[in-house]
Amino acid sequence: MPGTSIRFGLDPILGLVPGLGDLTSPIYTALILLEAFRRRVPPVVQARMVLNSAIDTIAGLVPILGDVADAFWKANLRNMALLERHTDSHVPPSPGDYAFVLVCLALVALIAVLPIALLVWLLTRFSAV
Fold first, then answer.
1. Secondary structure of the chain in the HEC alphabet?
2. Tens digit of pLDDT for each residue in 28-58?
3. Measuring CA to CA, which residue among 31, 40, 43, 47 is closest to residue 105?
4. What span, in angstroms and rounded, lies between the C-alpha atoms of 21 and 40?
5. Average pLDDT, stretch 98-125?
6. Sequence-ordered list of residues with C-beta below 8 angstroms from that of 57, at least 6 positions apart, any chain
7. How far apart are CA 11 and CA 68, in angstroms?
8. Which of 73, 40, 41 is nearest to 54 (CA)?
9. What are the pLDDT digits (tens) for 70-98?
10. Taking the alpha carbons of 112, 113, 116, 118 in that order, is the dihedral positive or negative?
11. Taking a C-beta distance cutoff of 8 angstroms, is the pair 74, 8 a contact?
12. What is the mean pLDDT of residues 20-26?
């Protein structure tokens, strides 16, 4: 953005065009993930890459706000950095890779369990009436 230190690529701009951004970004993401698999990047790093993409996709579901999130989250740029770090120098996964994956999995589990817990609570609270 002119006059600021904020930089972004084509993804947020293409996201403003209905349909176009929804098609181009996932294709590029899939190519990065496929290359990570082909280069035998450690599984936890591949999981982190998938979760980066999932966060980007979920944020992108919100109109306009999702495009703003694309400008700041930059999942494909993060994934490319992970791919380069783990293929060129064969760096082992860091504790941060494991922590990121575990926190994301815990959040997904919480999101899955929360509606069930709410339903059980509602049934026990109002079934006596």
1. CCCCCCCCCHHHHHHCCCCHHHHHHHHHHHHHHHHHHHCCCCHHHHHHHHHHHHHHHHHHCCCCHHHHHHHHHCHHHHHHHHHHHHHHCCCCCCHHHHHHHHHHHHHHHHHHHHHHHHHHHHHHHHCCC
2. 889 999 999 999 899 999 999 999 989 888 8
3. 47
4. 29
5. 92
6. 26
7. 10
8. 73
9. 778 888 889 999 999 988 777 889 899 99
10. negative
11. yes
12. 72
Tokens standing for residue 33: 């993930």
Domain ranges of the chain: 10-94
| ∠ CA 11-105-46, rounded to 5° | 55
The rounded distance, in Å, linking the Cα atoms of 82 and 65 is 26
Mean pLDDT computed over every residue of the chain: 84
Confidence of residue 68 (pLDDT cuts 50, 70, 90): confident
Q: Which is nearest to 41 in space by CA: 94, 108, 104, 77?
A: 94
Contact assessment for residue 18 and residue 8, using Cβ atoms and an 8 Å cutoff: no
